[in-house]
Specification:
Blueprint lengths: L18 H12 L6 E6 L8 H10 L3 E7 L10 H6 L4 E4 L10 H12 L5 E4 L19 H10 L3 H15 L4 E4 L5 E4 L7 E2 L6 H5 L8 E3 L4 E4 L7 E11 L2 E11 L2 E6 L4 H10 L7 E7 L23 E6 L13 E6 L3 E4 L2 E5 L2 E2 L3
Parallel strand pairs: 1-2, 1-3, 3-4, 4-8
Antiparallel strand pairs: 5-6, 5-16, 6-10, 7-9, 9-13, 10-11, 11-12, 13-14, 14-15, 16-17, 17-18
Helix pairs in contact: 1-2
Amino acid sequence: MRWLLYISFMLPLSAQLNYDRMAARIVDSLALEKGERVIVRYDPGYFHEITGPLKKRIASRGAIVSAEIEYLKPPATGNGRLARALKSADVYLWMPLRDELYVSPAEQQALADWLKEGGAHREIHFHWSGGSVLADGLPTVHPAAFDRLYEAALDIDYGALAARQDRLIAALRQGALRITTPDGTDLTLRAGSRPMNKQDGDASPARARRARMKVDREIELPAGVVRVAPEENTVNGTLVVPEARFGGVIARGIRFHIASGKVTGFEAAENRAAVEAELKSGGPAGYRFREIGIGVNPRLSVPAGSKILPYYGYGDAVVRLSLGDNEELAGGVQGNWRRWFFFPVSNIASESGPIVRDGKLLIP
């Protein structure tokens, strides 16, 4: 998967979503300063009802909507409009989009360059249907019931969320971590002194100015995950993925063997060739461990019996393990390729005790 290229499968939104309240939550997170300039990226055919309330809320803070830009249809390139708009912008706000629309590679690069400039530059991702995924990390049909779930997940006590995340971060720094799953994953790794990305809904200019890595400037709403790229040479063991889609086919019984952060070999009970093709497409990054993420938002917990995971696994104790480039997380793996896998039921323990047990986060 490429950075900022998200595939989504759309169903009509549930009726009567409170767009004004959601817009208020987004603008509150931005903590806009007077005169800040905001780019609103939107899909005119999906979720556009929130654009009007957003513009009003932005203006009420003394900030300026400096550009409104539609998403592109392939093979459009954007003709440099976004790059020009970014030259004087402080905030890039990108809203949900349909699967036939996208952000072009040229625009992706312009955004990456703009974020690297630092200062108060920041962006908010407000995915919707594209965030509804299967455990293999790829999007699936977005259930209409998740519209309400996502709406509720925006309206939480962000101070309490941040405090719980801080306690989780402290636990993750307690020496070696061991991660196991019922299907056979058994990994050990260390976070060490690597910076932790805490998605707590804070998209303020102050947060942007103290960012330690690129993803600190990429704010996700709904919020709730803690992410870290562990020290690469400390990652050892086996990563087991029961089932995953690769190149249009389903592979099953996948076992990745990892030593010092590198995939040294793998097996698959079905469609091994498809797995190998995708790993090779990532170059050297395809054979490197990327990161661990742990969801903390209780309003994004996986509904009982659901195979579909809400919002990229940001729900309580959903664990995300991945392969690929982790430079945006201040890691040492480069390559512009990544693949996530999600584990709704897992166990994580540090040297000081358990953190997740049977899919339940033990951090109060």
